[in-house]
Amino acid sequence: MIHKILTVLFCLFIISCSSTDKKNQKKILENDKAIFNQAVKEIKNERYDKAIEKFKSITNEFPYSEYSSQSKLYNAYLNYQINKFDEAIILLSEFISLNPSEEYSSYAHYLLAMCYYVQIANPDRDGEFTKMSIEKFEYLRTKFPNSPFSKDAKYKLYFLNDYMAKKEFNIAMFYLKQNAPSPAITRFSFILNNYQETSVIPQTLYRIAESFLMLGLENEAEKSLKLLSINFPESKWTVELKNLLNKKHIVKKQKKSLFQRIFN
Length: 264
What we know:
82% of the residues lie in helices and 0% in strands. It is an all-alpha fold and 264 residues long.
């Protein structure tokens, strides 16, 4: 008889615990949802610092909640909005590592790339930020080609590559102005090999031809004119290079003629 009573009491205890767990779980979820909604309201009222704190409390207190990953993404976006890029990068990296195939992963990759992109104007680290943003945008386009963010990434990549090409071009021009055609040619060649779809290509072809002419390599300069004529027939640099080579031919012919008259 005692054994039967103990069995019944044990069953009642299990049922009671199960019921209590369900109530607690429901309460936790309700609290989680309430905090999330409050945080969203704070965003609408532009009280970003308060919203960040609420989203933080969700990720800290309810790490397994359905709102946890969304809160981390919201937090990253808010830190991005208030120019706390290092914090945003940390949060986005965590989100991506924990949710590689989540619904919002493409947006997380896009926002991560943007964290580097908007810092390019920093003169101390612009090269580092440019390379990182190119890497992140290219990954986004490869991993999520059908994402709505991939289209914008394409335009951002064009700008970034153009930016890098112009930096290389300025260095090459520095060498050229210093009457150092060989290092200038190295830099111009790097642009032609690595930044083929950028705006500086026509002038780069002209300037590399100019550098070759300084070294007396007229045949190499002629190759640049052929590339310009085929790819950029309407460019002013094509016309400029034709005029430059024509002048060189005339001068060369005049020198030859003068030498022949003197020799005769």
